[in-house]
Amino acid sequence: MNKRRHFQVSTARVVPLLVALGLLFACGSVQAQDLGASLADAEQRVAAAEAELAAEQQRVDEARARYRAASRRAVAPVAHLNDASAEVARLRRALARKAKLAQARIAGLERQHQQEENEHDEDVRTGMGFGLAALVAALIALSWGWFRATAPVAALARLELGQAIGVCVGGGLLLVIVGAVLGSSNGAVGALGSFIFCLGLILPTAFLLARHSAEVQRGRSRPLLRRERLPAWTSLATAALMFVLFLAGAGSALFADDASSNPISTELREEAAAASEGPGAEQVEAARKTLAAAKKRAAGPVAQREAAQSQLSDARDDLQGTQSQLASARSDQRSFSRQLVAQEAKEERETEREAELIAIEEEEFAEQEEEEEEAASECDPSYSGCLDPYSSDYDCASGSGDGPDYTGTVEVYGDDHYGLDDDGDGIGCEYG
Prior knowledge:
The protein has helices at about 1-140, 145-150, 150-155, 160-185, 185-215, 230-255, 265-270, 280-375; strands at about 395, 405, 410, 425-430. By secondary structure, it is mainly α. Mean pLDDT is about 75; it is low at about 1-10.
């Protein structure tokens, strides 16, 4: 029974192998036919592309000849056009450079005039502010007795010396700041700012001197010059000095040098406007007319050259497209040829391999039969799995038998002398 079973197994292995090889051979034949058809189609496409390539090459040669002829006809008109364009550009650059220089000179003269006007206004503001402040100082000097008895001086006298100095210095600093801010303006506001600025320097000194004089008069402080009262001419001299300073400031404001007019010459203005009017503009206009005439004469030849160039470009593009198609067809032809040769070689190898496999299977089958016959004499013929025929007893490996030998699941072919098939279904130890 073992021998019959092994024969069935070997046959079951050989038959599917033969069927598979037959199917592969049939598929290879179909694939070879498809490759042959594809190769023929690729060869037709190669022939068509080669014919089209020759026609496209002739078209390119004709377009190149037309382009060269059109280019030769356009040489003279284009050269004249370029010369006219260069002349217009040269005139424009020359006029622009001349106008730029003139405009720079005009701008410099205007800046100089504006600077002189600013200096004149500053002199007027400073002179008026300083003169008015000097006039106030002169009035204070003339009415020194009255000024010393005023309420602000009395208020300062009630303060300590340090506090009085702080108040006067702080007030003067405030006046200086306000005067500096207002003095940056023009006109009367600027003059008022200069006046306030000067008062910020004069009034603190006058108030501190008046406070000191009042303190000396009351006996609270020592005189600076060791005299309680200064001579009467001191006030008059101070007032005269301040009045002189007033006249000097007012005179500097009234007689300040006016800004020079710096008239801009007509020639300079013409140079600044040379690009838009005057002889320069006339030259540019004449050059433009020459340029327009040159463009008109060159329009026809240039248009013919551009048309010929476009046709040449189109012909070259078509030629490249045809070359690409030819290269693709040749590539397909080579690919299909290689595939067909490979397929034919593959079929030959598969035929040889089929014969070799059949021979090998027959040889293996014969060897297996011999091995099975030899092994059958060393195995118990009643069980699969080659149980030792000389064992005193076999028990299932998962059971509780005492051996001495154990086995797993086996098939029972004859007499179950080891008692492995309890249910008599031909399978022993089926749960172990």
